[in-house]
Amino acid sequence: MFNGPQFCCVDLEGNIIVSDCNNHKIRKISTKDGTVSTLAGSTQGFKDGNKNEAMFDNPKGLC
Description:
This protein has 63 residues and is an all-beta fold. The chain has no helices and four strands. The chain has a single domain, classed as Thrombin, subunit H (Beta Barrel), CATH 2.40.10.500.
């Protein structure tokens, strides 16, 4: 479930990418079947890393 989505964009495959601000994650909505998956983020914080290690604090934008 999304909690405070802030921004969205569309990737090259037509999927919708959403910054899920209050869940501290970047999510993908598949336009093929509607499934939602987490692309990056785990818990609140500040940490660089791969998709399983990265931590965000209320991500609000995408580029």
